[in-house]
Amino acid sequence: KGLFSIFDVIKAPVVITIPRIINKKLGIDIEAKYQDIKSIFYRHFAPICFKNKVDSEDVLQEVFLGLEIRNKGTCPFDPAKSSMSTYIVLVARGVVFNYLKKTKNSRETR
Fold it and tell me: What is the pTM of this model?
């Protein structure tokens, strides 16, 4: 009497949980976050620009362009992975160092 058969298990109710799909928008609204992006850039990267004698406004425009490209590409900002400031610093760091490398190479060829 203590044993059960396979037919007892089949008679048990089956509960299927369907995961809810959340339609979240990835990426940063660059226009709305303009001042935040600008302040993060100046806090972290303006001293590097000043030290290397490049115009920080030019580099900031490149950062905005880089953010725009990444937001529409394959690696948009995802709030589940990192904070917005971390994402901005990550993108800006790559843009700044590429810009510095490009200007250094153009100065050496002159």
Answer: 0.68
